[in-house]
Specification:
The complex is a heterodimer of chains A (301) and B (260).
Chain A: E1 6-8, E2 11-13, E3 17-19, E4 41-43, E5 60-63, E6 66-69, H1 78-90, E7 95-100, H2 105-115, E8 122-126, H3 137-140, H4 143-156, E9 161-164, H5 172-181, E10 186-189, E11 193-196, E12 198-199, E13 204-205, E14 211-215, H6 220-233, E15 238-241, H7 247-256, E16 260-263, H8 266-269, H9 273-288
Parallel strand pairs in A: 3-16, 4-7, 7-8, 8-9, 9-10, 10-15, 15-16
Antiparallel strand pairs in A: 1-2, 5-6, 6-14, 11-14, 12-13
Helix pairs in contact in A: 2-4, 4-5, 5-6, 6-7, 7-9
Chain B: E1 3-16, E2 19-25, H1 29-32, E3 38-41, E4 52-60, E5 65-71, H2 78-83, E6 90-97, H3 103-106, E7 110-116, H4 121-130, E8 135-142, E9 157-162, E10 169-170, H5 173-179, E11 186-190, H6 193-206, E12 209-213, E13 229-232, E14 243-245, E15 252-254, E16 258-259
Classes of the chains: A alpha/beta (301), B alpha/beta (260).
Chain lengths: 301, 260
């Protein structure tokens, strides 16, 4: 039996495989296809202080080796989330990471305060959604604002705070440092890259929102590079994500220095993708005679 | 339950211009499939990331067989790949997904099936499931040449309309309904959005109970990603906003429930 345990901000995960926010709901729909207790953590879809209706459809479009989405952070609001989604997840032996979104600093803090009484292990703050005008991206593209929102959230939070960073910036290390300076316990990256697709037969945008977030295997090299840079810029854990579809992909992120990984778009291709990636990691460790998964983290310099 | 299966292709043929019919051998899906449900269909080489949602056209639960009829949408499309898979090859699918038509509502009632274009296939299993004792009238609308129309004959009267006059009636399905003076207690419809909009207002005008099967771009197909929503008239209990998920809460909705 290999030792798969990793630790993020003092919270131990049974393995480094988590779900990427927005691709997995709160796990209920996926529980028919896999045992959620096998995952290191479930990262929920972003939740705000009140229900959000999201964007008009079409909200998704396929691209070469990836997809664009502009869901617009539709969510049922924190009240329903606390009543329904957290009790559901508590049935499983996995860590619960709640992704939080908001339009203002006060709104983020309101959600974070509500969650302080809940059995939630970590908070992930979404300051990087490209699809909502006030969905936090303003905080996520300016290091001064990012540091300030991190400080505000940290004051309100009982659980450790992960800041989820946008790749739509000139220098990711500057953003990672700003989050760290604001008191973040960890950072996660990358969120989606802003993109556009034209439907040539309809002669208009493929997405009603015109632009959307690009995800999937096509963004993985960008994500690995940014994780590598962020790891070397800060002294807090970095959670890596962006196009992970198999164990080999996950290993690239770990070797670049990620303390854990999130699987996102691959869940749409195969609802059991997370568990298959976990099994692939175990197989790789068997073949390579590696005892602890942590021995593979940051092996490239 | 929903299953991810590799289904052996039993047959594959082109039954109209760019319209293909495929029979699959399934372990469990065929015996659980209900009329109006769909499958997520994946390309074999995973070259397309997202599954294509394709409605179940017909099923033989005893033999475990299931039929899909689909349209090839372009030269580099996933459906073009599907059409190139020969008999004997295995196709990865997930299903059955969605709710399907409320068959109990139609029992003992005069049912009108309205199908437009690639919305026609799911109505076949619907008609078959009501059996020969059902009181079913089918109206099928085409852009040009009809397909599958003969297959509905065992289940009641069939009327075909086409926009360029390749059939007896020129026009769309509602033109046919009006020309033939058809009436019903319940309507089940599937087709393009403009047709469904017209059917919705027709049903409201005539005060007929009406169910519509919707189509939307999907990603997960199981209700998690919120990619494929439709505006709902009332606040939805799951989403807490006026949005329902086409893949999970639908694809079949009561016409008054949704805004098109």
């Amino acid at each position: 039996m290999k030792n798969m345990k990793v630790s993020i901000a003092g919270v131990e995960l049974k393995n480094p495989v988590m779900t990427a926010s927005g691709t997995f709901g709160s796990g209920e729909e996926f529980s028919a296809f896999l045992d959620l207790s096998r995952l290191g953590a479930v990262v929920t879809k972003g939740v705000a202080a009140t229900p959000w209706p999201g964007n008009p459809t079409p909200r998704v479009a396929e691209t070469a080796s990836g997809m664009l989405n502009a869901i617009g952070l539709q969510n049922p609001g924190i009240d329903t989330f606390i009543k329904r989604d957290i009790p559901f997840l508590k049935q499983f032996d996995t860590r619960i990471i709640v992704n939080v979104c908001g339009k203002t600093a006060a709104e983020y803090c309101q959600v974070v305060e509500r969650l302080s009484e809940c059995p939630v292990d970590l908070l992930e703050i979404n300051v990087s959604c490209p699809n909502v005008k006030h969905g936090g991206i303003a905080f996520g593209q300016d290091p001064v604002q990012l540091q300030r929102i991190t400080q505000e959230v940290k004051k309100a939070a009982r659980q450790p705070v992960i800041m989820k960073l946008s790749p739509n910036v000139t220098d990711i290390t500057e953003m990672a440092k700003a989050a760290e300076a604001g008191g973040a316990d960890a950072v996660s990256l990358i969120n989606t890259l802003t993109g556009m697709k034209i439907d040539i037969y309809r002669r208009t945008f493929a997405l009603a929102n015109r632009t959307g977030g690009l995800s999937g295997p096509c963004i993985k090299p960008v994500a690995v590079r940014m994780v590598y840079q962020a790891v070397r810029a800060v002294n807090i854990p970095v959670i890596g994500m962006g196009g992970i579809a198999c164990a080999e992909d996950a290993l690239e992120f770990l070797m670049a220095g990620a303390s854990a990984v999130s699987v996102g778009t691959a869940n749409f291709h195969d609802p059991a993708a997370t568990v298959k990636i976990l099994e692939g990691l175990e197989r790789f460790m068997e073949e390579q005679q590696v005892e602890r998964i942590t021995d593979l983290i940051r092996v490239v310099e | 339950m929903r299953y991810k299966e590799d289904c052996r292709i039993l047959s594959q043929e082109e039954i109209g211009k760019d319209i293909f019919s495929m029979w699959l051998q399934t372990d469990r899906i065929a015996s659980e499939a209900r009329p109006g449900q769909f499958l997520s269909v994946y390309t074999r080489d995973a070259s397309k990331l997202l599954p294509r949602p394709i409605s179940i056209c017909d099923a033989d639960p005893e033999k475990g067989c299931l039929r899909l009829v689909y349209r090839v949408t372009g030269p580099s499309s996933g459906t073009r790949q599907f059409s190139g898979y020969h008999k004997g090859i295995c196709l990865p699918v997930l299903g059955p997904l969605g709710n399907g038509y409320p068959m109990d509502v139609a029992k003992g009632k005069r049912l009108l099936l309205l199908g437009g274009g690639i919305g026609i296939p799911p109505l076949l299993y619907t008609a078959r499931s009501l059996g020969k004792n059902g009181d079913v009238t089918t109206v099928l609308g085409y852009r040009d040449k009809p397909f599958m129309d003969q297959e509905f004959l065992p289940f009641g009267k069939v009327f075909c309309a086409s926009e360029n006059g390749d059939t007896a009636i020129r026009g769309n399905v509602l033109d046919a309904v009006r020309t033939e003076g058809l009436s019903a207690d319940v309507i089940f419809a599937c087709g393009p959005k403009p047709m469904l909009r017209a059917v919705k207002s027709y049903a409201a005008e005539k005060n007929i109970l009406c169910y519509l099967s919707l189509e939307e771009r999907m990603a997960c197909g199981i209700g998690a990603c919120l990619g494929c929503v439709v505006r709902s008239t009332e606040k939805d209990e799951h989403s807490q906003v006026n949005n329902k998920r086409v893949c999970k809460d639908g694809p079949v909705f009561l016409s008054d429930e949704v805004e098109l």
